[in-house]
Write a structure and sequence with these properties.
two-stranded antiparallel sheet, 9-stranded mixed β-sheet, 45% helix, globular, alpha/beta
Amino acid sequence: MTKKRLWMVFIGMMMIAMTACSSGGSGEEKNQGKPVKSDGKTVLTLTILQPDEFYQTVKKKFEEKYPEIDLQIISYKQQAGEEWTVGDFEKYQKTTNTALLSGKGADIIEIGGLPLKEYISKQFLLNMEDLLEQDSTLNKSELQTNVLEAAKKAHGGLYAMPSGFYLEAFVGDGDILANASVKADDKIWGWKEFGEISRTLKQQAGESGFALAGTPPERILYETVFDHFEQFVDSAAKKANFDSPSFVETMQQLKKWYDEKVMTANQAEAGKQLFYNTYFYSPADLINIPYQFFSNPKLLQKPHAEGQNGVTITPSFEFAISAKSLVKEEAWKFVSFLLSEEVQSLQDGISLHKSVNEKKLNDIKEQMKNGTFKLPDGKAINVPNEQFAQIQEIINAADHYMNYDPKIVPMIEEEAKPFFNGQKTAEEAAKLIQNRVTTYLNE
């Protein structure tokens, strides 16, 4: 993944939120408890990261559909494309917290990377489950309900509505997997099974091959924590469980795989890597990226915990409605409008609307038939229909929401690194992780 895309993911998961000043004042008056302008329109406020042409287009279309509403968009950053700093994020998070506490924030907040569970526990945000169920303007069967259900499961309710999403999954060498003596069932494998299968596949592929490359062991360690996050972190009780025997054993098993060169933190030569862990930002990526790796790629679920799905969902943008908003009905109209086929078709990425994803894939099919579709490197390919069916299956089956505390990630990776470098024992590293996370949870 390019640095630009990594930064986009960081922005998407950590820095997309903001607050605005109260809707009252400036010549506005009250009408049945709702702020209105002098021309009688209901004022609805939305805060976003920074100016974007997409939101201006949505504003125009929304006000055309609902002429009685004046949608006011306020940006935290004033210029499109401005670079963010850690200081910016800290300031905007503090401002958001203050506004939610006072009840004077915006009606709708573009939210991400903020302490969502804390906001939910303090009843700052509206649960949109009933609003979605009762909405007659949306055909719920046309939405990616697997994503919405994953969001509800992650947050204990539909407190943050995704408007689009990315996927994270594995891509494997289809030729080697088809001819291997051991069969990899990616629908049920965990990291332990993946490691054992990879050892066998590596032996068949030759000593110079690796199952995974370019990924340090501390990153894989966090992947395993993410799969069992509630087992290791109880945010409500402010307790951590990283000094447990199971966590220590996981660290030791990972180190063994890297010591045996089943996996490596270094980049591998072309053709010397069996699996790639990658992000897919659009339906087209589910074709373009796998065929950059292999001539016969196979989309796979990532290793995952029992009872979970190994395709991870990361929301591109999420929207929350303030529980103290005086215009909740109008706020929901906007959130609902974002889920419409009309607006979803305007967005990049993977859509919450099934028909939008299907149309993009069908367009690629047609381009392949007439010979106009080419990979980013200029190579023309013709993907079999079963590959398209697998892509659709991956999109529809994904149900594992990216639900974690981003501040805990570096704690795990930083304290585990000395163990993987041979400078500390697994027990020592686990104790340091336990202490840091416990201190953070109790701050």
